[in-house]
Amino acid sequence: MNPEARRRLDTVLGALLAAAMLLALYMALLQAPRERTMGDLQRIFYFHVPAGITGLIAFAVNFFASLAYLIKKDRKWDGLALAAAEIGVVFLAIVLVTGPIWAKPVWLVWWTWSPRLTSALVLWLLYVAYLLVRNYVADPDRKAVAAAVFGVVAFVDAPIVWFSIRWWRDIHPSPMLESGALAPEMRPALWVCIGAFMLLFVYLMRRRVSLETARRDVEELHSRADLGQ
Amino acid sequence: MLGKIWSVLHKDLLIELRTKDSLNAMLFFGIVVLVVFNFALESVRETIRAAVPGVLWVSFAFSGTLGLNRMFASEKENSCLQGLLMLPVDRGIIYLGKTLAVTVFMLITEVVIFVFCLVFFNLEVWREIPYLAMVFVIGTLGFAAVGTLLAAVSVNTRMREVLLPLLLFPVVLPILVNAVEATHIILNSVEYGALRLPLTIMSVFTIVFGTLSYLLFDFVLED
Amino acid sequence: MIQVQGLTKRFGRFSALRNLQLEVGRGQFVALFGRNGAGKTTLLRIVAGLSRPSAGTVVIHDPQPLPPQAARGSMGYLSHNTALYLDLTALENLRFYARLLDMPCQEDDLLRETDRVGLAGREYEPVRNFSRGMQQRLAIARAFLHDPGILLLDEPFTGLDQGGAEFLKNYLAAAHAKGKTCLMAVHDVALGYGLADRLVVIEKGVVALDAPRHSMSLSDFQRHYQAISRER
Questions:
Q1: Which long-range contacts (CB under 8 A, 24 or more apart) does A38-42 make?
Q2: Cβ-based neighbour number of residue A214 at 10 Å
Q3: Which of A44, A228, B176, C79 places its Cα 20 to 30 Å from the Cα of C33?
Q4: Dihedral pair phi/psi, residue C50, rounded to 5°
Q5: Do the Cβ atoms of B82 and B56 come closer than 8 Å?
Q6: Nearest Cβ partner for B80 among C75, C77, C83
Q7: Which domain holds residue A151?
Q8: Does residue B54 belong to the interface with chain A, where contact is any CB pair within 8 Å?
Q9: What is the residue-level pLDDT of chain A in tens, covering all 229 positions?
Q10: Mind telling me how many Å the CA of B173 is from chain C's nearest CA?
């Protein structure tokens, strides 16, 4: 895609995103019915859950991009993996912050070691570790390999972590329950928010990946200049 | 192929037998952690038996990390790793040999730490030993399976030894959770049937990560 | 035979090797000269399969064409790092490598190897007690235990005393006479000139000079070499 078309797509995407976010805000804060027990506080749910879903998708993208890099050794996959990990960390951070905000007034505690929240925390730690690996290797090619290896390990680990924590919670049940069922009247708001977050994810990925591509291009130019001497 | 894995393992065991560097450090650190926990858990002294599984596995994990770091640090000396890489052997064999070596060192350390634990916390366990042995072996194998891979990754970075715990602990959480639970079931309850699930999860973890690390090891060692 | 084509190796923005071409024929002894950082070590490591190039290819004809990783059995690599385990004895070090190389690893076979490099009487001592010269002798035994057809050496004379250097010189001359292909990076110009039948100077990641030894005298070569090194 030539730069002109790319910029046009980004603008359209940006406009769509702005509209979607406004709609999402409206649906979540105004349109959706008030929850019986928790009141307006429950509306955080409309951002907490989509952020979680999008975070998981980000990590799936990281996994496939890491695998692709290990097989193909093309740095564009590494750029994709990095973007996905960074964005995933941010979205999961949103989950980890909105969780306590929701929990404190309802259950009078900041943190519940519920399976979902605990797994989210461990997943967040795994991908922060991924970013740390990248930070501590200087050479770009070796950085990409080390990170890709860890990305694959982290993703394979995630379901085992989830399963272990679920089982652990079953043995040590806590009085705090996570809300499971969702009233049908609330579903439209949730879907709109999920859609808006997906758009946000795509938009952020495009911007981050193009930044990384630009960085690689600069590096390429530098080495070509170096070679030319 | 088994012979070559044994050669790699045997070489590390032989060096350790001579110098006892790793084992001394691992043992000492593990016991120090026990002592620290003793002070940390003073306020719950009556129910300390309940805390023993957690204390044990934290101690194992910390001393295990020391052992893992040493495993590759010793190859960096004199560029021994280079010599290994020039051999026309599948790099996975180096991985398996080293994983087994770490497992052996950790198991030795764990037995000693466990004995100290019995003494420090005044426990009596005789019937439970075969079950504990099973949990220790599978848990340690799982820990070493992914630890060896991540140690190879960290040793080539700027931060070396410091990076390994940061990478390892989140990944190895399923082993720790299940091992602690399994140890708890053995020490503090009577129905051992409940052991099946944690042991299964730990075994799955070990097999999955043993295979994955074996496949990924090639990528980590090349420059 | 070693074929290096269009070899480039980048470390971030810095290119250690730039589109390097080199062909080493069977049985040739090539001495690699060049300043520190010129790219000699990088080149040797890539030929040995220890490092991957950013671009370009290396083909080892074994006789069939193979990438370096697949040709490890035909190559031996010796650098100024000995790759020896200091806490093991000389014999134990060799036994370890012999086992992994599928070479005979009985006591007698290994003693023969240590004898060959002049370490008779010290076989059962830990390598930690060896002098630099003795360690390098053992490293030679280790690196070439499987009698490879291609010897890759990265400044192997570093830190060797007179006796050790004499030994290595004779060893390499004998290997060359036996028909081994040798690619050796070396600092001492006279030493390299004496052993090689082809002189190659690497400067800034490319081949700056490539001439058969008989085409110039030692002093000629030294002049050319200095001229190349002086150029910025």
A1: A38/A105, A38/A106, A41/A102, A41/A105, A41/A106, A42/A102, A42/A179
A2: 11
A3: A228
A4: -85, -15
A5: no
A6: C83
A7: 46-174+184-216
A8: no
A9: 688 888 888 899 999 999 999 988 888 888 878 777 777 777 888 899 999 999 999 999 999 999 999 999 899 999 999 999 999 999 999 999 998 888 888 778 888 888 888 999 999 999 999 999 999 988 888 899 999 999 999 999 999 999 999 888 888 877 666 655 677 778 888 889 999 999 999 999 999 999 999 999 998 888 778 776 5
A10: 34
* End-to-end C-alpha distance for chain C, whole angstroms: 33
Look at chain B and count its residues.
223
How far from the centroid of its chain's Cα atoms is residue C84's Cα? 16
CA distance C96 to C41: 26
Q: What does B29-65 look like in DSSP terms, one character per residue? A: HHHHHHHHHHHHTGGGGGGHHHHHHHHHHHHHHHHHH
**DSSP assignment letter at A112:** -
Neighbouring chains of A at 3+ CB pairs under 8 Å are: B, C
Asked if residue A166 belongs to a domain, the reply is yes
- Please say whether the beta carbons of C51 and C16 come within 8 A: no
pLDDT at residue C232, rounded to an integer: 53
| Residue of B60, B56, B28, B61 lying closest to B41 (CA atoms) | B56
**Chain A residue closest in CA terms to B200:** A164
Single out the residue of C94, C100, C181, C175 nearest to residue C135, CA to CA. Answer: C94
For residue A35, give the 3-state DSSP assignment. strand
- What single-letter DSSP state applies at residue B122? T
**Position A54 in a domain:** yes
For the entire predicted model, the pTM comes to 0.91
Degrees, nearest 5: CA angle A189-A193-A196:
140
Q: Do C13 and A223 touch (CB under 8 A)?
A: yes
Query: Do the domain assignments include residue A155?
Result: yes
Instruction: Give the Cα-Cα-Cα angle C66, C203, C160 (nearest 5 degrees).
Output: 80
Closest CA to C218 of C187, C191, C182, C186: C191
Sign for the CA dihedral angle at B96, C100, C137, C134 comes to: positive
Angstrom distance (rounded) from CA C180 to CA C169: 14
- A134: Cβ–Cβ under 8 A, 6 or more apart, which residues? A82, A143, A146, A147
Please give the tally of structural domains in chain A: 1
**Residue A226 lies inside a defined structural domain of this protein:** no
Classify burial at B38, counting beta carbons within 10 Å of its beta carbon; exposed 0-12, middle 13-18, buried 19 or more: middle
Q: Is residue C226 classed exposed, middle or buried when 0-12, 13-18 and 19+ CB atoms within 10 A define those classes?
A: exposed
> What's the burial of B122, exposed, middle or buried (CB within 10 Å: 0-12/13-18/19+)?
exposed
- Residue identified by tokens 């070439």 is C144
Q: Name chain C contacts of B74, Cβ cutoff 8 Å.
A: 85
Chain B CB contacts of C148 under 8 Å are none
Tens digit of pLDDT for each residue in C200-223? 999 888 899 999 989 999 998 899
* A170 close contact with B: CB closer than 8 A: no
List Cβ neighbours of B212 (8 Å cut-off, separation of 6 or more): A152, A153, A156, B149
* CA–CA gap between residue A66 and residue A62 (Å, rounded): 6
